[in-house]
Each structure stands twice: as structure tokens, then as C-alpha cells.
Specification:
The chain is mostly helical. The chain is about 75% helix and about 5% strand. Strands 1-2 form a two-stranded antiparallel ribbon.
Length: about 220
């Protein structure tokens, strides 16, 4: 015959509930005793009935086991608190950073002329001073950059002037060299021509003599 499974819920009948309590309490204590004997475990059980009556079982001194339980509980609580501490710190830091970011965003908008309606006179004067100080710093940086650019342009101008002067000198040197070469070539041509004149005259005289020798005499045949 199959044993019907008992549904676990509160027993409404008072007598049946007390009987079940007594039976199950004795069974629980018996199982605790067996576990302590078999496994050499320290076990302490404390049970209060519905009427407030105390029932307990301990494999050794109940007070010693309770003290051990309290010490172990404190250690566990400290360990859990230590583990949760980084999370709590991170959450706190996140909240601080979020508030600081919101404050900086509001301050930036106010410097840009936004969200000024809710500010009082003193706060408006403070924002005005911040804007003036910012404009002064911007103007100073701008002037420094302009002076730096002007200095660079002047330096570049001097470099270009020096480069142009060097190129001018190179052009003048190149012109002088060409004139000297042309003059040398002209003098050489004149010398050659002068040396060729006697030769030409000699050739002409020789030609005339040859022509005279080759002509027949007028008293001939």
C-alpha cells in the first residue's frame, strides 16, 4: 500500500498539532544525536513550542556552543561588512562625483549667460567677476599669440631678404664671368685673324706669280 504524502502546512487541530510537535521534536533530537556520534560534530538545538516552552539538546556544553556561535557570527558579520565596504565607497564616490559634475555644469551655463534668473545679486556679481577674469585671461593669451606671430613673420622677412641678396650676388657673379669669357674669345679671334693676314697675302702673291709663269710669251709661235 502506497503511503500518502503529507502536505506541509500548519495543523489547525490543536491536539493533533501538539502530538505532531512532540513526535517530530523527539525525532529531530534523535537525528542530532546520531549526527554528533557518527561525525564527531558539536551540535546544539534550541526549540520553543507554540506555548513558549523551551526544549534543547547539545552534544557538549550548551553555553560553550552558544559562545562559539556568537564569536563566529561576529567574524562573519565583520567579513560581510568588509566585502560590502568597497561597494559602499564606490557608491558614495559616485554620488559625490555626480553632484560635482552637476555643479560644474550649472556654473559653466551661468558663465555662458544661462540659468541666471534664480541667482541673487551677490551670486550675479560673483559670476560677473568670473567672466571678467576669464575675458582678461583670454585677451592676454590672444595678445601673446599675436606678438609671437608677428615675431615669426619678421624673422621670416629677414630670411627672405638675405636669400634675395644672396641670389642677387650670384646673378652678378654669373654676369661678370660671362663678359670675361666673351672678351677673351674676341681677343683670341682678333689674334687669329691677324696671324692669317700674312698667309693670305703670301697665297695671293704666289697665285699672281703662277699666273704670270703660265702665260705664253708674246714673241712666241
Amino acid at each position: 500500500m502506497v503511503r500518502q504524502k503529507i502536505q506541509i502546512k500548519k495543523i489547525d487541530n490543536l491536539t493533533a498539532r501538539q502530538v505532531t510537535f512532540s513526535k517530530r521534536r523527539r525525532g529531530l533530537f534523535k537525528k542530532a544525536q546520531e549526527l554528533s556520534t557518527l561525525c564527531d560534530a558539536d551540535i546544539a538545538l534550541i526549540v520553543f513550542s507554540a506555548t513558549g516552552k523551551l526544549f534543547d539538546y547539545s552534544s557538549s556544553s550548551m553555553m560553550e556552543l552558544i559562545q562559539r556561535h556568537n564569536v563566529q557570527s561576529e567574524k562573519s558579520n565583520k567579513l560581510i561588512g568588509t566585502q560590502h565596504l568597497p561597494i559602499q565607497t564606490a557608491s558614495s564616490n559616485h554620488a559625490v562625483l555626480s553632484k560635482e559634475l552637476a555643479d560644474r555644469t550649472t556654473e559653466l551655463k551661468q558663465l555662458m549667460g544661462e540659468e541666471l534668473q534664480e541667482l541673487g545679486l551677490n551670486e550675479l556679481m560673483k559670476v560677473e567677476k568670473l567672466v571678467e577674469a576669464g575675458l582678461s585671461r583670454v585677451g592676454k593669451i590672444k595678445n601673446d599669440k599675436l606678438l609671437n606671430d608677428i615675431s615669426k613673420m619678421k624673422t621670416r622677412e629677414l630670411e627672405l631678404m638675405e636669400e634675395n641678396e644672396w641670389l642677387k650676388q650670384q646673378v652678378e657673379k654669373s654676369g661678370c664671368t660671362r663678359n670675361t669669357t666673351e672678351q677673351g674669345n674676341s681677343a683670341e679671334s682678333i689674334t687669329i685673324c691677324q696671324s692669317l693676314v700674312p698667309c693670305l697675302e703670301a697665297d695671293k702673291s704666289f697665285s699672281d706669280t703662277s699666273l704670270r709663269l703660265g702665260l705664253p710669251s708674246s714673241n712666241g709661235n
